Amino acid sequence: MTLKNAATAVRLNAHAPYSNFKVGAAIRAVSGQVYVGCNVENVAYPEGTCAEAGAIAAMVAAGETQLTEVFVIANCPAPIPPCGGCRQKLAEFGSGDVTVTLATTDGDEQVTTIGDLLPGKFDASHMDRS
Ligand code: THU
Fold first, then answer.
1. What pTM, to 2 d.p., does this model score?
2. CA distance 111 to 106
3. Where Zn(2+) is bound, by residue (predicted)?
């Protein structure tokens, strides 16, 4: 299954009764395995989670920690920009040159990279004082 098809399908499972904005994400891990996630909202709003976070959690739960490709889709006027927190989450598990395709359900796509999505990212080197 393509990442696009996987993200498109899982988006329909999103639990988004508060925003009515369903998001689907699919990531390919270094093994080739595809992991999917959708946003899961909560009546206590800050407890909601993003689609990307769900896909990453599924990957890590399966024992993988390196992603090689990402696809995110939503019903929006322009390809969905991942939120800031999700950019940092993606950067935790993928190098700067990993391709991220952002899409609308109308078929618009924008291809970018983790590095372009999060320039100047915080990483472990920033905690090194030695
Ligand atoms: N959302 C995602 O799932 N991913 C993003 O990158 C942007 C926002 C979700 C969170 C919330 O459930 C809804 O979209 C509206 O913000």
1. 0.96
2. 16
3. 50, 83, 86
| Ligand 1 site, residue 75, Cβ cutoff 6 A | no
CA of 59 to the centre of ligand 1 (A): 19
Which tokens sit at 39?
């946003």
In sequence order, the β-bridge partners of residue 38 are 24
Q: Which of 13, 65, 78 is nearest to 39 (CA)?
A: 13
Atom number of ligand 1 nearest to Cα 86: 6
Q: Which domains does the chain have, with CATH numbers?
A: 3-119 (3.40.140.10)
Digit-coded pLDDT (tens) for 55-75: 999 999 999 999 999 999 999
Backbone phi and psi for residue 95, each to the nearest 5 degrees, phi listed first: -75, 170
